[in-house]
Amino acid sequence: MGDVNDRDDIQGIKEQLRELERQNKLLKQSVAQGDRIQKMWQDSVDELKKTKKALKQSEERFELAMEGSRDGVWDWDLETKRAFYSTRSKAMLGYSEDEIGDEIDETLNRVHPEDAHKFRRAADAYLARVVDRFEVIVRMRTKSEGYRWVLTRGKAIWNRAGKPVRFVGTTVDLTERMEIEQQLKLGAQVMEFTSEGVIVTNKDAIIEAVNPAFTELTGYTQEEVVGKSPSLLASGRHPPEFFQEMWRTLKEEGSWSGEIWNRRHDGQLFAEALRISAIYNQRGEVTHYVGILSDVTEQRKRVEDLQHMAFHDALTGLPNRLVFNDRLGQAIRHAKRSGEKIAVLFFDLDKFKAVNDTYGHKVGDLLLKGVTERVQTCLRDEDTIARVGGGRVLRGASWRWKGTALCRSGTAHHRQSQPAFRSRREYLQDWLQYRDQSLSPALHGSGPASEVCRRSAICSQGRWQEPLCFS
């Protein structure tokens, strides 16, 4: 009996041991599970830290990007009607951090009245998914009651029901760009409608644009000149030194103005008043040149005509006394240097008053022109003939030998004795065949020009009948 009880006790102890082993096993499994859970928790914590760090870095990058781009940020909660505006978006309008609230109407109430409808229409169309983007340029009122041009872009978040719940975007200040664009438009309009020709080149003097007035002036269209050098207009009348000086002035002073002869598309030459200015960038580097040109051919011709009238006889076109004295002075100075002689011949048409009195001044004028043409046939390019008044003509020349001068004067005297108007005034032929001229030469090697003219005049009045030679 005792043995049976012992066996039962032993069996009970074994079962207790097995239970303890099972519980120990479960405990070990629980500990291992706890370790795994702890590790998972630790991993989650580490991952969360990494995520927070990455998020912080992302936020910093975003803030730096916004600060670098000078863009403002806004964030609208469409359900609560609350809004967030970044510091930059407030400063853009001249406000400090605490001067703009957190309501959506803070934006809507600052849109220019003329742009408010455009802003709302663009926002409503995007939030209703009629268009796939929100982008609008409007004017926003500043703290100083002025307005600045801004570009606003945004993206929305919709819930499962398709209702927009959040609207986030950026604001960019476009004021300076809009002002530049307006200036460019104004400049383009001025260039389009100005009556003066305008030519724009790059820094290498290659044409980039011309205006309609340029085409009208030169005959070249924009398509024909773009990409080419302005030298295609060159007339060939200016030496290389002229253009070298022009470019030197332009580079040193930034501008050049003057008159220049150019050639039109049809080959016709014309005078133009040209003003060239250099255009600089913010670094002070030349980027373009702008030339403004106008046709001054008629003005130039009028000036030349006035100058010609001041120094030439209106009837015969011969140089007057001023020009003759100047050229005679030059000839005397040349004679002194070269050792050559010069000759001055004084013609006085005798009985010229009788021609005017008998046949009229018109015929007298024709006679003077005819005499001028005949005398000019005796001259060389370096000789000068001038009318000093009435029927008196001075002829100056430079010869190496006195005899040659006297021979030429004889030739001129012979040609003048021929009938002046064989076909136009035949009724004068007989009378003019017998007209005479007082002709006296004066030879000069040195002395003032006025003395030569005075002695020549005296000779013509008969005080000296022989050619004079002064030393």
UniProtKB/TrEMBL annotation:
UniProt domain GGDEF: residue ranges = 340-471
Which CDD domains does this one have? GGDEF (cd01949), PAS (cd00130)
State the superkingdom: Bacteria
Query: Which InterPro entries does the UniProt entry name for this protein?
Result: Biofilm_reg_signaling, GGDEF_dom, Nucleotide_cyclase, PAC, PAS, PAS-assoc_C, PAS-like_dom_sf, PAS_fold_3
Q: Where in this chain does the record put each PAC domain?
A: 134-186, 256-308
The segment(s) forming the PAS domain are 58-134, 183-239
Q: Give the UniProt keywords, A-Z.
A: Coiled coil
Query: In this entry, which stretches build a coiled coil?
Result: 10-65
What PANTHER family does UniProt report for this protein, alphabetically?
A: BIOFILM ARCHITECTURE MAINTENANCE PROTEIN MBAA, DIGUANYLATE CYCLASE DGCP
Q: What is this protein called?
A: Diguanylate cyclase
Source organism per entry reads: Solemya velesiana gill symbiont
